[in-house]
Model the fold of this input.
Amino acid sequence: MISWIAYAVYWMLSGLLDVYAFHRFIHLTKKPRNIQIALLKRIVRDNKESQIGRTYRFSFIRDLEEFRAQIGLNTYADIKNDLRLQESSGKYVLCARQFVYLNHNADPKNFKAFPFTADALRDARRDVRLTAYAWLRHYGLWRNRVLALLEGEPRSFSKTGLPQGTVTGFVFRNLPSFMRRRCISNTEITAIKNPETRYLAHAIIALAETKVTCLVTANPATLVHLLYVINQNFDEICDAIEKGILPERIQQALRGRQFLRANPKRAEQLRTLAETKDRKVFGDFWPKIRGVICWTAGSCRSSAQFLRTQLPEGTPVLELGYQSSASFGTINVDTRSNACLLSFHRNFYEFAERSAWEAGFGQLKLLDELVVGQEYYVLVTTRSGLYRLQTDQIVRVTGKVHNTPTFEFVQNGSSSTNINGERLAESHVISAIEKLNAEHGCEISQFLMTSDTDSKHYRLYVESESAWEPELVANWFDNALESCNSEWAVKRVSERMQAPEFHRVPTGSINALRARSVRDGFADPLYVLPHLQDQTDIPLSFSEAMLQ
Done:
C-alpha cells in the first residue's frame, strides 16, 4: 500500500514539474524549421570566438546557406585532433566553452569520444527528464521494482581527467531519484569484469525480487542472455536466494560484499516453478510485468522479437530511443506507438537520402523536408563544437508528430559488404530473414551472415530446432534477398554472385559470439552483434559448430 501511495505522490509531483516541459517540446514540433534555424544561428553566435569560429568567420554567417558555404562536411577523423587539443590545453578550439563530459561509443577497437559543454550537459539532463516523464505516462511501469541494466559501466575518466561514459549510462544516472530507487541495479555488480559472473550476480539479485513490473536495458540480447544464464544456473540461484549468500566466485569479484538477504519463501516459489517447467521465461518469475524498455530497431529487431516470446502475451516493448554518441539522440514521446523525436531543440540536423548518398551525390535536407518511409544518413551540429559531423548512422522516418518526423534506427553505414557490386547492407539481411519468417514460418530469431571475399559468396548461420533442407532454405533466402536488394537480384541473374549457403548452428552459438566480444572489451549491454560480418572476423570455432 505504501508503495502505491509513493507512486501516486511522485506521479502528481512529476506531472507538476515535467508536464509543461513535455508539452512545450511537443508544441515545438509544429514549426521544426523555425526551431532548427534559430538554434543554428545561436550555435554559430555562441562559438564565434572559438578558433574554428574565427577561422570560418562565424561572425559573418547570417543564414543556413552561408553556414553550409563556410563549413564543409566533417568526419570524426577530421575533428579528433582539435577535440583532443581543446580537451588537453583548455584552448577554445572547437567551441567557446570548456568541455566537462565526454560521451563515448561501445567499440574499443574504434573508440570515439564526443564532447559536451556544461550547457549541453544541462540540456541533456533535461531531455532525460522528458524521457522519464514519457516512460511514466502509460502502463504503470514503475509501480513496483524495475530490473535496470542500463549502466554499461561505472563512470570513468579520460586521460585529462574529464568524466566520460555512454549515453545509456548517462540516462540511468540522471533519471529522477524516485525512479532510480525502484531499480534493481548495483554499481558494484555492474563493475564485475567477468561477463558470466556479472550476469549470474544480476540474475540472483533480480530473481530474489517477487514484484518486478518493468525490465530496462539497451540491447534486448542482454535480457535474452540473462534468461539463458538463469535457466543454466537455476538451482544455484535458488540456493543463493534461500541462504542469502552469493556464490564464492561472485563474492571474490565483489571482495566479500553482500547484497542479498536470505529468502527461503522466494526460493521455494522458484523451485516449485522448476517442477512444472523445464525452461522458464520472464513471465514465470514476474507475472505482473507491465513492459520492457530496450532498443527494438536495427540489429536489435530480431532479439527484440525473440524477447517478446519470453514475456506474458501482450506485454508492450517500448523503444529506448535511437542513441548517438555525438548527441542525445531521440526521445520516445509516445510509448504506445514508439514515436521517437530527435532532440531537434538542442542540436541542428541535416539529412542525406540513403541511396543517393551511397551513390556519391544527393542534396542535404532539413527536418521538415523528409519523407515518411524514406531512409537517411544523419549529420549533426551541436553547441559543443561539432559542425556538420557525419555520424554514419542511417535512420528511417516512421511518421510525424505535427510537422516533425519521427525516426527509428536502421543501421550504421559501415554495416555493409560489396563483394561483387551487390552493395549488401545489414538491413537487407534483416528484412530478408523477416520475409523468410513471414512467408515460410521459419521462426528464425538468431542469425548471422558472413561474406567470403576469396570465394565470392555468403554463408547464413541460423539457430533453429527445425532440421530444414539446406538447399531449400538457401533458395528461399536468396529470393528474399532479391526482393530486398535490387543489386543482389541483378548479380544473381547475371550469375556473378553465387547463392548463399545455409548452415544451422547449436542454440547459443551466436550469443556466444557476442559474449566473446564483451570479454574482449566491447561495452555490455550496449554492444550489438552485427548480423552481417566478414568471414575473417568470425572465430574458426564458430564455423566448426555448425550442424549442417
